[in-house]
Design goal:
Radius of gyration: 20 Å
Shape: elongated
Strand content: 5-15%
Structural class: alpha+beta
Number of helices: 5
Number of strands: 4
Largest sheet: 2 strands, antiparallel
Length: 116
């Protein structure tokens, strides 16, 4: 780090800031590709908190989800996203199902944006 060209004062400041960050929650974010699969009772069985955009986020981490036997998808590539889009198209084609946005309103903590 000394070879970075930063003076001792700047390095001290950086380390003080890093020490202040230690211990802050690091889980309050939406996994951009993580999806829990369930029927409408998921919000009754999963502790949730609101994302910044107001969507329900599970408070379980990936290990908790697996231990509880919940189904999860990690949609990490374009192929998987295309597969999900195809599945929704087929469901719509073969049934009367239509997507609704009731999930957001069912989660009491998602009715308002979290404060910073």
């Amino acid at each position: 780090m000394r070879a970075s060209g930063l003076g001792e004062e700047r390095l001290d400041l950086m380390f003080r800031l890093v020490e202040r960050l230690d211990g802050l929650p690091r889980h309050i974010a939406v996994h951009p590709c993580g999806v829990l699969l369930s029927d409408a009772t998921l919000l009754d069985r999963t502790p949730v908190e609101a994302s910044y955009a107001g969507f329900p986020m599970s408070q379980f981490d990936k290990d908790d989800v697996e231990d509880l036997g919940l189904l999860k998808l990690d949609v990490l590539g374009i192929r998987m996203q295309s597969s999900m889009a195809h599945a929704l198209t087929e469901i719509r084609r073969s049934t009367a199902w239509r997507s609704t946005s009731t999930t957001r309103s069912r989660c009491p903590s998602t009715t308002r944006r979290p404060t910073r």
